[in-house]
Specification:
- The chain folds into two domains: 224 residues, D-Maltodextrin-Binding Protein, domain 2, CATH 3.40.190.10; 209 residues, Periplasmic binding protein-like II (D-Maltodextrin-Binding Protein, domain 2).
- It has 20 helices and eleven strands.
- It has a five-stranded mixed beta sheet.
- Strand 1, helix 2 and strand 2 form a beta-alpha-beta unit.
- The chain starts with 21 loop residues before the first helix and ends in a 6-residue tail after the last helix.
Length: 463
């Protein structure tokens, strides 16, 4: 997933390792058989090894050093039972998936723990790449967690990963830019109201319009907020998947995406390549008014303030404090007036590789990593919200992130992207047809994307 809570991915043509149909089922069978062969070999390799405690390798997504710090803390708490080393995955979510799948498909035993973006969990589970979660940990790790985090950690009605942190997008706004727009942002608002307020105030609406996973994130949130689902029944065979984009909800989502982005004075001239970072730059600029984005944006301004203070830069600190004081927040915009929004859900879950030689110790390490204290620390230090509800009540969390209650509320409303082993085909097909959003045709493109995805799943077309 993700740096600072972002969910991005490359062009859909790079879905190299995603299996479809019989190929995925064959791979699962090969994986299962290889695990049986590998088990005694692993045992032989570990037998008589007196070189010290085992080293567990945790494959992590890029962050600001928080996962490495937690690994160090849990190594200390292990009291010699194991040490945890971290290995850095690529920046974007799809490349992270590709690297992990390549290694796991080769029965790589070096993958003990891994940070996994939620949309790819069904694929990993279906292929037999995840060691089963111990029952006791499954119970303890899902006590008092936000609803979307538990939903996103499961496949086939079973918890197959452990929630670590959960992410969602809020509606951010610049108080100074919208004070004369006549919009009450203390109450839920619609996308249409946001657009009208931007026009009234002469400000921008920053969104993620680039050809990447973030485009699917936006489309899915709009469709779910309109009462639709891209895949109403995602756990059937690929040829039987009922893709629903050519629906009222799908056409409304396409309409909103085009209306928001077709006017460069509203969305910015670079909206078709704008990711989460670029959106934040537009939002914090002179014309900034509104933005949908993850909580890292607040952490970024706070980090600038802290750095200026540490350097003794009084002018820089004053400017950063003014920016921080000017930022407001609320629940993600509604697609339909009177209907609650279904904001994006993301984050990171933790899995243990099926071929790890230290499955039990890896799950012991995960139990340490996901404690309430570590989740609160990770939010404070890296801006990534906890999966556990209680962590939002941490005193330092509330002090540094005054919007923490809104984030928790958003996560309870949030809807995961389609949970299917064929997610890459679904997301890649949507991106191919719906980009650029500036030229979306609501009467044509939802049907075209639906047809393309269906054909790919039935092996009648390729991405």
């Amino acid at each position: 997933m993700t740096t600072a809570g972002q969910t991005t991915g490359p062009a859909p043509g790079k879905q190299t390792w995603q299996g479809i149909g019989e190929r995925l089922r064959r791979r699962a069978a090969v994986v299962a058989g290889a695990a049986l062969v590998a088990a005694p070999l692993a045992a032989c390799g570990a037998f008589g090894d007196d070189s010290g405690p085992p080293t567990l390798t945790w494959y992590i997504n890029p962050d600001a050093g928080g996962q490495a710090e937690i690994a160090s803390r849990c190594t200390d708490e292990a009291d010699g039972a194991y040490t945890i080393d971290t290995s850095l995955l690529p920046r974007d979510a799809t490349s992270q998936r590709e690297q992990l799948v390549r290694r796991l498909a080769s029965n790589d035993s070096s993958i003990d723990l891994m940070s996994i973006d939620p949309p790819f969990i069904p694929e990993f589970a279906e292929a037999g790449f995840l060691a089963p979660v111990p029952e006791e940990l499954a119970e303890s790790s899902t006590e008092d967690i936000v609803e979307s985090a538990q939903e996103g950690a499961m496949w086939d009605d079973e918890l197959v990963t452990v929630p670590f942190w959960a992410n969602t997008q809020l509606l951010w706004y610049r108080k100074s830019a919208v004070e004369d727009a006549g919009l009450d942002l203390e109450e839920p608002v619609t996308w249409q109201q946001v657009l009208e307020a931007a026009r009234e105030s002469g400000s921008t609406v920053a969104v993620q319009g680039t050809l990447a996973e973030s485009l699917t994130v936006w489309a899915n949130a709009l469709i779910e907020s309109a009462g639709g689902e891209i895949l109403p029944d995602p756990d059937v065979d690929p040829e039987d998947l009922d893709v629903q984009l050519d629906t009222e909800a799908g056409r409304l989502a396409a309409t909103i995406m085009r209306e928001v982005t077709e006017d460069s004075e509203i969305a910015g001239s670079a909206v078709t390549t704008a990711d989460e970072d670029a959106s934040n730059v537009l939002f914090m600029g002179d014309s900034g008014g509104f933005m949908v984005n993850y909580p890292f944006v607040y952490a970024a301004v706070r980090a600038t303030l802290d750095a200026a203070k540490e350097a003794g830069d009084q002018e820089g600190a004053r400017a950063a404090q003014e920016q921080l004081d000017d930022i407001g927040w609320g629940i993600y915009p509604r697609t339909v007036e009177g209907e609650e929004a279904a904001p994006p859900y993301g984050g990171i879950n933790l899995g243990v590789g099926a071929f790890s030689e230290h499955v039990d110790l890896s799950y012991d390490a995960i139990a340490c990593i996901v404690t309430e204290e570590n989740q609160a620390y990770y939010f404070v230090s890296n801006g990534n919200p906890p999966a556990k509800n209680a962590a939002y009540d941490d005193e330092e969390v509330r002090e540094l992130y005054p919007m923490a209650p809104v984030i928790r509320e958003s996560l309870d409303l949030a809807a995961p992207r389609p949970q299917t082993p064929y997610y890459s085909e679904v997301s890649g097909g949507l991106q191919r047809i719906w980009h650029p959003t500036t030229a979306l045709d609501p009467e044509v493109d939802p049907a075209e994307a639906e047809d393309l995805i269906t054909a790919v799943l039935r092996k009648e077309a390729l991405l």
